[in-house]
Write the structure tokens for this entry.
Amino acid sequence: MRDNDLSFACRYVSTPGNRKNLSAEEVADWSANEIGIVVVFEQGVQNPLGGVDRGVSDATTAQSQLDALDLSTAPIYFAVDFDATAAQLATISEYLGGVASVIGQERTGVYGSYSVVRHVLDEGAATYAWQTYAWSHGQLDERAHLYQYRNDQQIAGVAVDLDRTISSDQDYGQCMFASQAEGPAVTQVWPTSGNPAGGTTVTISGSGFQDATDVGFGGVNAGPITVDSDWQITATSPGGEGTVDVTVVTPNGMSATGPQAQFTYENATASPEVTWVSPDTGDAAGGTTVTITGWGFTQTTDVGFGDVNVSDMSVDSDTQITVISPAGEGTVDVTVVTASGTSAAGPQAQFTYTA
């Protein structure tokens, strides 16, 4: 809810057959009335304590339902619908890592208390956050996209929970079916930075993209673009410098500019940066397939797990590397080495070996 008007509705994509699950009829109705659709997954309350494997399973279930509804690229919030303890937060991040390995980190969201939202955003385990007032003890993380502020309210004889937007009134993980005649609108660009030489795979979210003909980075058109849906485009950044506006062009016009639709070309001499390692645990004997997310990876020469360099590495793009972990023990820093330097260590760039 926003300004006392219904602007979006949240529905489930969980256990098949659940009466609360989003239906094709609802998609058609809300689309016709330009109501945003937010999707959330919740199956068993304790699922987020199931680690990476449970996250993979839950994300696969949710994705299959979105595919059937023709909403394949929609973000998904995964519910942590209990009063999580401090000791459980690391496991919840691992669960979301499993989710991200299926649907992509840029589509991964979390629903939970203040402590859950704060931890997950600090760790970079999700892109979207939906905080509930329950178990939050009056605290609110202003980085959250949505806030559930009241439960069990009656609207037209139906019990509903009330939510409002917080940090962004434009992009909060919704599928928005704006009228094509209104022209395209860009609400998010991810990642927001990349190599000055170009070649960064960029996901652009918004609405009115169905008939897009061009995507501009400043005054330069992007490389190959793929119109994934009416609200998402995948583009390859051209070369450039500084911070530029990202615009989408359709027969109905060009999207407006703004801070939510910008892309920054990082200094070509800057060191690479690792923002996420998934999964972040694996067998001490090695052999785990690990996806490393960040930026500045195009000219990567080595990837280190502690003091040991990997022997099997694929530089998928400027923002992603896939490796096979070497043998090791304990928790080690994962580093990426390029001609410009070595990525910094940190909790977001660590891997733990298990027996």
Notes: The longest strand covers residues 146-155. The chain has three domains: 8-165, 180-265, 273-354. Residues 51-68 form the longest helix (18 residues).
